[in-house]
Amino acid sequence: MNTKNLLRMVGIALLGLSLWLGSLPVDVAQANPSMDAAAGKTAWDAKLCKNCHGANAEGKLARALANYEKTADDVIKQVRTPRAQMPAFSSTQVTDQQLKDMVDYFKSLPAAQFTFTPYAPAAGDDPGKTLFNQKRCAGCHGSDAERIVSLLAGQNRTTISEAEVLKQVRTPKANMPTFRSEFVTDADVATIAKFVKAQVEKSAAPATLPKSGADSPAVPDASPALVALIGGLAALGASFVMRRQNIH
């Protein structure tokens, strides 16, 4: 076979291959770079999704997502317009691409067995603390709102108003999601805000100083040994003074 015929046959073969590849679905005909499990894990940690769903999507304050069976479109819809008690995240807080990568991360994980345990208030718990934990604010802010206290302390803030708390819950700044009124009502927020305000102000209050007069703490009676020691030192001092006077 001469070179000309060989080149003709190679050309025909390449043409046939290109036509066959062109007939395949896009995700088969070429590598799909749209999902990245490693990037998904990075976003999972950075966006603090782990605070509610667990460090490895094994479940915590909300359901497990490891080995998730739903599609990326399902996840994006749930994050933007959530069902049940999940708050909503905007596309500026977490992008569609990051959510797609998270889905790939979920699928790389083994399935997890998880049973949610609701928060059970202790006897005497502040109603605001109970709601704070039941509405899962504690996932990001700590069960006693200690991370809010720390944040405000860093800003030299010693109090916070109920209006500020309501505004942050409904139209949040930074990475905090939006809590819908059907899940956290305005009345709930008011109760939570009172608890948070009290925690902030309690942390900022100065240490109690001793009071004067009758309220001063009692001085304990001196022991006999201490009295004897003081008396002996006083006598020794007097003797020393008298000797110096006799010398001069």
Describe this protein's structure.
The protein is mostly helical and 248 residues long. Among the domains are: 71 residues, Orthogonal Bundle (Cytochrome Bc1 Complex, Chain D, domain 2), CATH 1.10.760; 78 residues, Cytochrome Bc1 Complex, Chain D, domain 2 (Orthogonal Bundle). It contains twelve helices and no strands. Helix 9 packs across helix 11. The radius of gyration is 35 Å and the shape is elongated.
What is this entry, summarized?
With 248 residues, the chain is an all-alpha fold. The chain has helices at 3-22, 26-29, 37-46, 50-53, 72-80, 96-107, 127-134, 138-141, 146-154, 162-170, 186-204, 224-247.
Q: Predict the CATH topology of the domain at 127-204.
A: Cytochrome Bc1 Complex, Chain D, domain 2
Series of H and E elements: HHHHHHHHHHHH
Looking at how many chains there are and whether they match, the oligomeric state comes to single chain
List how many beta strands DSSP finds: 0
Average pLDDT reading: 82
Task: Tally the helices.
Answer: 12
Portion in beta strands: under 5%
Largest sheet: none
State the shape: elongated
| Cα-to-Cα separation, first versus last residue | 137 Å
The helix fraction, in percent, is 40-55%
- Secondary-structure-based class equals mainly alpha
Note poorly predicted spans: 24-33
Q: Could you tell me the radius of gyration in angstroms?
A: 35 Å
Task: Using the 3D structure, state the CATH architecture of the domain at 127-204.
Answer: Orthogonal Bundle
Question: What is the CATH class of the domain at 127-204?
Answer: Mainly Alpha
